[in-house]
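Format notes (please read before filing issues)

Several people have asked whether sequences and structure tokens are stored in separate files. They are not. Every record keeps both together, in the order shown below: the sequence lines, then the token lines. Line labels are part of the format and must not be stripped during preprocessing.
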Amino acid sequence: MQILACTTPVSLRKSFDGLAAAVESVLEHEPMSGHIFVFFNRRADQIRLLWWDRDGWLLVAKRLERGKFPMPWQRAPTQGQVWTLQPGELTLLLEGIDLHRGKRLPRWQPTGVENSVTTM
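Then the structure lines:
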């Protein structure tokens, strides 16, 4: 399972079917793939997470009363309209912590394995 964030603002008046259609048209992914899809509105004060869990949709919404969600892709070049997040990064993002101000420590990787995650 991956967490895929849409870098293009989406109207969050959409519900299950509208966001699933945005997954297909904007992100060009299969909405029932089991991945978590993250959407933001234009003002970046609302977020929606859409997930298919084999027998139904789960939709999580959060609206900030003050401030904006920090968008990690606004300060870094993006490859297309999809930004891959790690679970911890999504947690920090939901808490309003700017991922670019934090510093990721180097991680151990086995020899010959490349990092396929396109974050930070």
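For reference, the curators noted about this record: The first strand starts at residue 3 and ends at 6. DSSP finds two helices and five strands in the chain.
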